[in-house]
Design goal:
With 366 residues, the chain is α+β, with helices and mostly antiparallel strands. Helices cover 52% and strands 15% of the residues. The strands form three sheets. It has a four-stranded antiparallel sheet with strand order 2-3-7-6, with no helix packed on it.
Length: 366
């Protein structure tokens, strides 16, 4: 497929861009950061996402959704990143919906209507240490009658303190599986934590939490992680694009020694290099989304490429921005410092660039 959007996808992009800029700009993020909001996002805005149809992008038409794909979800996520819009979209409407695709009709009927209505928030609990290492999952899922009991800990569970239910990865005798755990389950302890960008996550402890049969196997976990990697790559592209735009605007207005600093060729070269890196990141992310939608076996490798490339481009964008703004870049008068903090959190979510470079090398036999 060509690496550009169709007319319908371009229309969705324009719609999402107008909506985010109007209803959820950076000022909206500042508001909830300064309030110290316990959820880190507005539930009213999440309902507006539903009214726009965004929450149902990946939900099949049979289940009441739009039946679109990862390309369309990525379009929304890029605009979320561009505006630092605080929302549960990445985890709830992307990764958890991907997990529920393979679940039974009863479970889908229980949770998907709430997600479609913007009334339900979900969380994904995979990581157990300071870094993303899904192949080292230690949480145990032991047989208990017709179900299982979960024992272990999870960290970096984004929106874990706000979630109505959590999709948890645990190790069974047959391999890793996914389980749905309700927020008020006996034996579940949730310790909320505020991340560097003021968004909310949680540490969770499972002390013999009883659950039903798995909602997905190890293959389902792989699909969920690929969706998360590519989705977070899209958001990183949005973060990078907005940071670069703010930096260029500053170069056109800031004067030193009687000249606009944007007239200095060395700064022009650095911005040109960043532009090229950003366009490559956007292209490989779009390719990864297309491969996911086609069910292509190369989607696994390209998801690693997308997350690594988008992460590095975003970090370059915010670092260039902070340096070119100078000390002002870290003050609340300008937004560039906020983009830097969001970049750091998104880079770690679903694995940083080094992790994905290593996994890609292993996948290709190096």
């Amino acid at each position: 497929m060509p690496l550009y959007l169709t007319d319908d996808q371009a229309l969705l992009r324009d719609t999402a861009r107008d909506f985010m800029a109007r209803e959820a700009p950076v000022a909206h993020f500042r508001k909830y950061r300064d309030m110290g909001c316990k959820d880190g996002f507005a539930h009213g805005l999440w309902k507006q996402f539903a009214e726009m149809g965004f929450t149902g992008i990946l939900v099949s038409e049979a289940d009441g959704g739009l039946g679109m794909g990862h390309v369309e979800a990525g379009i929304v996520l890029e605009e979320i990143g561009r505006n630092l819009t605080p929302s549960p979209f990445l985890i709830t409407a992307l990764t958890v919906v991907e997990a529920l695709r393979g679940a039974g009709e009863e479970l889908r009927g229980r949770w998907l209507p709430g997600i479609l209505a913007g009334e339900t928030v979900a969380a994904l609990a995979v990581d157990e240490g300071p870094k993303h290492r899904p192949h080292d999952i230690a949480m145990a899922a032991e047989r208990l009658g017709n179900g299982y009991k979960l024992t272990g800990e999870k960290s970096f569970v984004v929106q874990g303190g706000s979630a109505d239910f959590i999709v948890v990865a645990a190790r069974t005798d047959e391999g890793t599986a996914l389980f749905a755990v309700e927020r008020d389950a006996d034996g579940l302890t949730v310790d909320p934590a505020r991340l560097a960008d003021s968004s909310m996550a949680a540490r969770m402890r499972f002390d013999g939490v009883q659950v039903d049969a798995p909602i997905g196997d190890e293959q389902a976990l792989r699909r969920v992680l690929r969706a998360g990697r590519v989705g977070s790559a899209s958001e990183l592209v949005g973060v990078a694009g907005a940071a670069a735009e703010r930096t260029v605007a500053y170069l056109k207005e800031r004067k030193q020694f009687g000249r606009l600093i944007g007239e200095y060729q060395v700064l022009q070269h650095r911005q040109a290099d960043l532009y090229a890196e950003l366009e490559i990141a956007r292209a490989v992310t779009l390719k990864a989304q297309q491969l996911l939608d086609e069910g292509d076996e190369e989607a696994a490798a390209m998801s690693h490429v997308a997350k690594a490339k988008a992460g590095r481009a975003s970090t370059q964008a915010v670092q260039e921005g902070v340096q070119m703004f100078g000390g002002l870049g870290m003050t609340d008068e300008y937004d560039i410092g906020l983009y830097m903090k969001r970049d750091r959190v998104l880079n770690e979510l679903f694995g940083d660039a080094n992790y994905h470079a290593d996994r890609l090398a292993r996948l290709k036999g190096y």
